[in-house]
Amino acid sequence: SLQQAWDGDWHVESVGKVKIESAATTADASTVVACLWTPTTAFLDKSGDSPDGDTAEELKVWSKQTAKLAVRDGRWVITTFAYDGECSGGAPS
Question: What is the DSSP letter of 39?
Answer without folding.
Answer: H
